[in-house]
Batch of 3 targets.
Target 1
Amino acid sequence: MAADAAAHAPARRGGTFLSLEGVDGCGKSTQARALAERLRAAGLDVVSVREPGGTALGEKIRGILLDPANGAMCDECELLLYEASRAQLVREVIEPALARGAVVVCDRYLDSTFAYQAGGRGLDAGLVRSCNALGSCGVLPDRTLVLDMPAREALGRAVGASGGADRIEAAGLAFQRRVRDAYLGLAQEDPARVRVVDASGTPDEVARRVDEALAGLGLPVGEGVRHG
């Protein structure tokens, strides 16, 4: 039993794990890419990943989750698919990157599952937290940034940019508002890890707020770092 537990324990990490979160259309993916570019420009080994996805298997699961044709998917199936994609990403990509000392920048992680499946879908919060513990393989970010803006504005951006809603965006405005409220609740529960970042303004303005929210991690971001 002890040997089995050791085999599934999180790998020892020397790197830094960052996740960016927020409702659909908040600009999270843009900021995740820009942050990774700034860190690489500073000479760091940076691994950029996204959820769901980030591995060959995870990208197949992503296609299933976002396909509007899968509207009959039940909430429990959705939850477990997200966790399956996450577990593969952690074991295949995140843990090895952290073990070698890299910075991992993840576009969504387990807080998305809590916000969307517990907050948005209404699944039992304790159940979702238990599933998150399994899907994350016990690996938590060092810092999680929630890019925050009104749900109506964010959803309008998301649907306008893609030319149509995917299966999650199609859940509507009330759903996105519940998701946003869940994110803000997580920030109140765990302020040491989860920081709220105002996502309004230009990408450069938001990038500066992102850097400020990463203070204390020893990363080369902030004053003197070029944005844009």
Target 2
Amino acid sequence: MTDAQDNRDEAVEDENLARSYGLNDEIVQEIQGAIEREDTAFIHDTLQDWHSADVADLIEQLKPKLRLPFLQIMEGRVDPDVYSDLDENVREHLVDEMEPAEIAAFLNELELDDAVDVLESFQEEEQREVLNEIPVEERVVLQEGLSYGEDSAGRLMQRNLIAVPEYWNIGQTIDYMRDTDDLPEEFYEIFVVDPRHHPIGTISLNRAMRSKRTVQVRDIMDTEQKLIPVDMDQEEVAYLFQQYRLASAAVVNEDGALIGVITVDDIVDVISEEAEEDILRLGGVSEDDLFGSVMTTTRARFLWLFVNLLTAIAASIAIGLFDATMEAIIALAVLMPIVASMGGNAGTQTLTVAVRAIATKELTAANMLRILSKETMVAFLNGSIFAVLVGFTAWFWFSSLQIGLIIALAMVVNIIVAAVAGMIVPVTLDRMKIDPAIASSVFVTTVTDIVGFVAFLGLATVVLL
């Protein structure tokens, strides 16, 4: 076989791999062309083995005007899970064109948490119309799911689970699972309950399958379990799963009765969601920015930019206090942004670490002083190194040892203050029950700007004038 043939085979293999895992521009362009020329056979053949997540990605990447024609061409072949994987703005645009009965049909096929998540994005009147198209038994379950707080364990849990009394044996348990039609699609544990339906233990599936039929459930159940209150925040739930390496956990109501189960596949989504949310909030944007309308995105970002404008004005006022100094020594205007920029970056580094540590409960009152001391020392060392570099640069640039010393000292002061602020601000906001990911960066940036300018210009005023 020639080298050219080998290369062609490798290229084909790479292309097949790319088509198996996610999308590429070529596939999207091909499908858009097929939609425009109404080539139904090509689209059906291409997408017949695609995962629902990939189909959702495809819909998001299609031109907006082609999304509805695509669904019409698919003629009910779209997996209902596609709708739960879609960006909320894209999904809202699509379901606006659907009848309540059509929406109810795909909601009925979704798991409870996904169905509730989709329903929650509808207006109250739209919710009512869709729920009226759903059979009574399923409707009651959905309404109960909607009654729980947003981002709570009640929104995450599945109602389908396996619960058996402690006086059964393994044989009875296995027969029960074989004879029950509405078993969960995926489950990892069997819950053992008392007569009041309170969970008192769990049996992993592998242990149940390895035990003889005559073994009593109570003899092999694990009595140590993490019970999740139905109103617990999803971030707390995710922490429990991470901390204790849980595969699933029972959800209980205010009376301690078993009402649902949360599995690790739901928690993977939560962890990704929470991490993404924190990152986006640090930048003052929302998760729907990418597919939101121009006006919606503009309104969402306006407040953040307005707050930043106010903090910039505060920094400008601080500079204005030293206008005489700057008029006398033009070099200060050239060097001043360096101090503020270095302080801002140092503060952002510490802030990012602190916000993440708060979210993962690694930063607590017990270790706060120790971590703050460490961050202060790191800031002092970094500040000293950069102070030497910038000080010598300023000295040679403007032939003034005094200016070099002033900017060096201001650099050390501002980087240390930035590190301290980057740690204290998010911790303080967290104690005040304010999400540190939202508000911290504004305060830290303001502190570093003002301290940087005041330290630099104040030292210059004292030393040079």
Target 3
Amino acid sequence: MIELPVYNPDGQEMESLKVDEAAFGGAVRHSLLKQAIVMYHANKRVGTAATKGRSDVAGSDRKLFRQKGTGNARVGNIRTGKRVGGGMTFAKQPRDFSKRMPKKQRKLARNSAILAKLLGNNVVVVDGLSFPAPKTKGFIGVLKNLKIDRSCVVALQDYDENLCKSARNVPKVMVVPVAQLNAGDICNHSKMLFTKEAFLSVLNEDKASEN
């Protein structure tokens, strides 16, 4: 059982939550986590690199001169990759690097990533986090009060425009609704900051799936 303190935005401890490791799978599934991270990086690749091959450049298909008897090295047509203006040898073509995982596996990988952060004392829960208007200075102050000075994923119950605008100029900070959390984003950041509402929704979601 993990005891997780809940802070207010000023950094004062308000209460604590008892979290059972079984709610997040009981143990970190490293093989599944690696599979999810590989998928995460693969899906970020654009795959639009393209160069012109022999069939894409202008020029005749006629052999430049006969094979034997000229004293020169044998050569094909003018579009060969050995000549200036010819096509690239092994030309790059657009390709799809994307990978997929079943929904249940993605959820288990996300839970393993959260559990790894919990076991490493890298999860912070705040009682409430909202701003009446976008204010980057105010958001930086909250991070300082919570002693978060490294890269961080901020998980919210629902999208909050003012909070997202307050955090978008802060380096290495990512704000996402809890429904969009994935193992790749969690593992790419050192810390996790949950609102209490968002953290309880993840716990309740896992308990509901178990039942």
